[in-house]
Structures are given as C-alpha cells and as structure tokens.
Design goal:
The protein has 300 residues and is mainly beta. Helices cover 9% and strands 37% of the residues. The strands form three sheets. A six-stranded antiparallel beta barrel has the order 10-13-14-17-16-15. Strands 3-4-5-8-7-6 form a six-stranded antiparallel β-barrel. It has a two-stranded antiparallel ribbon with strand order 11-12. It holds the Pfam family Trypsin.
Length: 300
C-alpha cells in the first residue's frame, strides 16, 4: 500500500551553482549549494505502481570510487535513455562552449553512468555511456532541453525492475490536463532532515496556462505545477507521463521556480515548472536511435 510522505525535490540549477570544473564531475559541489524545498510526494512501495522505465544519470565523485545522483531519466529502448540536455551542459557551468569539443565530451562521458532498476528491493545496475545526442544550439543561453543517451551495452529487461516507456507522438499537454511526474529528487519526512532516496518518487500534477511560467518558458515547452505539487532538483530529466497504463511519456522535467506563500493561516509552496514537450522531438529521437525507438500515436 502506498502512503503519502512529505518529500523534498531539488531543482538542479547547474548554471547557478556548479563549480565550473570542465570535464570534472564533483557532484558534492553541486549538491551542497542547492536550495532545498519541501513538496508532498509519494514513495513507491507497491509493485503495482512501480515504474520499471525509470533511470538516473550519475557522475563520479572526487575519489572516483562511487557515482552520485545528477538527474532522472527514462528508458526508451534497449540501448537508449531520455533525459534533459541541461543535465550535461550544466556540468560545464560558464564554460558550456567546451561541452561540444570531442576530447572534453569523451572525457566527461567516461565519468558518467546510467543506472536502471532502482526499486525499494535494492539498487539497480550501472551502464556505461557510448554517446549522447543533443539538438544543435544557436547560442549558449537558449537550447532545446532534451538529450538522448546511447549505452555501450543493451539492457536486459525483467518484469519488475526494468522496462521501456512509450513515447506519445500526437499528444499536446493542455491546461487542466493531469499527468504524473517521477524523479529521484531528494526528500524529507519532516522538512528539516534531507535524504537522497535509493528509488524514485512520484506525484500527480496539472498542466497550467503558459502565463503561470512566463518568466522562463521556452519554445516547445509547457507549464505545470501548483500548490504543494511540482518538481525540483534531482527530478530534472525525469518524465511527465500518462496516469493510465500503458504509460506514455509526454514531457521531460526541465526547470522551474518555487514560491513560499501564505494562504490564510496555511504556509504553502507554489511550484512553477517548465517541461519539454516530447512530441515535437519524435523525428529527432527516431533519427538518432536509427529507428530503434519510435513514437506512437495514442487514442485517449
């Protein structure tokens, strides 16, 4: 049975808080500078509610003996993972022009891993990254926040811990629609003591009018969030997906802002979140995966 817990979500705002070490993945430098907020979430305890397509992007620590959480992601094929582009670009801080250089990219990817199969039963399995696919950038302040990761080896699937999420080609999230979001963002039970979960958490969220996120919404993005519902930090790169099975992913958690407000005698957090639309990038995804991953039309 699933019980509701107050969990924390951290928006990884790499551009503002990363140490700026090119080719280095000192994740502690990022985590120590993040502003921690509390939003109610649900911890996955029931196998019937499990999301076997969840994955996460991890980076090697200073000592080189473990990999820390960077971003959430989804499995979209046997060799392919979907996440947010800022999960890669953000590692370079103010030096994002270096991110496209072959040597720098190669050295950086050697320090990254994808982990799949994380559940309450135990940790998942690590996979090395072969290459990443990003959309062309016209400048270094505005870019398409989507990234496809290709693994060196194929994932072996089982019924509980690993699976593939379907991608919706013909779905345009509209204000008022409700979807689920999931991610590996940090959480807390009391708003004071913070912990990184070994598995993902999830919650329902409503799509909002663009004006709700007008200060930071980009092209091919939409807005979602509200009172005590939303996403932050380690959730970046995770999915917004259909609440009914089969699960179809319609968005990627990108970024946002959280307001502390008082409504009457109640203190609330009002989350404004930007999400990358999946549908406009279906041709891009199918091209870079050489047809191994295909979007589908859905009839809802």
């Amino acid at each position: 049975m699933v019980r509701a817990l107050p969990l924390v979500l951290l928006f990884l705002s790499f551009n503002n808080c990363h140490s700026g070490i090119i080719g280095g993945l000192f994740v502690e430098d990022i985590a120590n500078k993040l502003v921690q907020q509390v939003l109610p979430r649900k911890l996955v305890l029931d196998p019937e509610l499990a999301l076997p397509f969840m994955a996460c992007l991890r980076g090697k620590n200073r000592e080189g003996n473990s990999y820390h959480m960077l971003c959430s992601a989804t499995i979209i094929g046997k060799r392919h993972i979907l996440t947010a582009a800022h999960c890669y670009y953000g590692l370079f801080g103010r030096h994002q022009r270096e991110a496209s250089k072959s040597r720098i990219k190669r050295e950086t990817l050697e320090k990254l891993r994808i982990r799949v199969g994380d559940t309450m039963a135990g940790p998942g399995e690590f996979f090395e990254i072969d290459k990443i696919f990003l959309r062309p950038r016209s400048n270094y302040t505005n870019y398409d926040d989507i990234m496809v990761v290709q693994l060196k080896e194929s994932i072996t699937f089982d019924n509980l811990t690993k699976g593939i999420v379907k991608l919706a080609r013909n779905v345009e999230p509209k204000p008022g629609m409700e979807y689920d979001v999931a991610g590996f963002g940090n959480h807390t039970n009391d708003g004071k003591n913070f912990d990184s979960p070994d598995t993902y958490t999830f919650n329902s969220i409503k799509v909002r009018e663009d004006a709700f996120c007008k200060k930071f919404l980009r092209k091919r993005e939409y807005c979602a969030g509200g009172e005590d519902q939303g996403t932050m930090g380690g959730d970046s790169g995770g999915p917004m997906y259909s609440r009914v099975k089969p699960r179809y992913q319609v968005g990627i958690i990108a970024r946002g802002a959280t307001e502390h407000k008082t409504l009457g005698d109640k203190a609330v957090l009002l989350d404004h979140g930007a999400y990358t639309k999946v549908a406009p990038y279906c041709d891009f995804i199918e091209k870079v995966t050489k047809g191994e991953v295909k979007c589908e039309n859905v009839d809802w």
